[in-house]
Specification:
There is one protein chain. The relative contact order is 0.15. This protein has helices at about 20-35, 70, 100-115, 130-135, 155-165, and strands spanning about 5, 40-45, 50-60, 80-90, 120-125, 140-145, 145-155. The protein is built from five helices and seven strands. Helix 3 (about 100-115) crosses helix 5. It has a seven-stranded mixed beta sheet, sandwiched between helices. The protein has about 170 residues and is an alpha+beta fold.
Length: about 170
Amino acid sequence: MKTVPLSDEHNRKDFNCGDDKLNRFLKENATQSERKDLSRTFVIEGAEKRILGYVSIAAASIEFDHAPAVLTKKLPNYPIHVSLIARLATDVSVRGQGIGKFLLLDALYRSFEASQNVPAVAVVVDAKNKAAQGFYEKFEFVEITNSPTRLFLAMSTVGRLFKGET
């Protein structure tokens, strides 16, 4: 498996993850978000450029007062820069095949690599529902105190994952 940047050649019309908002983003807004430098979308493609899953990544920040203490420790009282997994979805036809996990790991790796040049202290995701929240929690994402559906993973933890440290 590998991810590639979303392109006009990809078959978006047949993608269905079971969530109308996530489907609509891919079909109607992802390219516009790319052109406006709001997010980058990467896909896993099947035969005939069919999209099996996608992930969109963006830069973001969290107000210092809303960030968990574990992230703000020893930092000045400024917004905390993070990498945001804005959307992650897999087609219903390939659920349970590890595509979501692969997309998440790909997004974490891209976020870590980017943080080596443009600092970010964490990767953040807004879980769309309890099932999504449980998915991210399996990978050690934890809730941000004032927003139970907003989860984070410290970039230091992500770094250890890709540097092979424990």
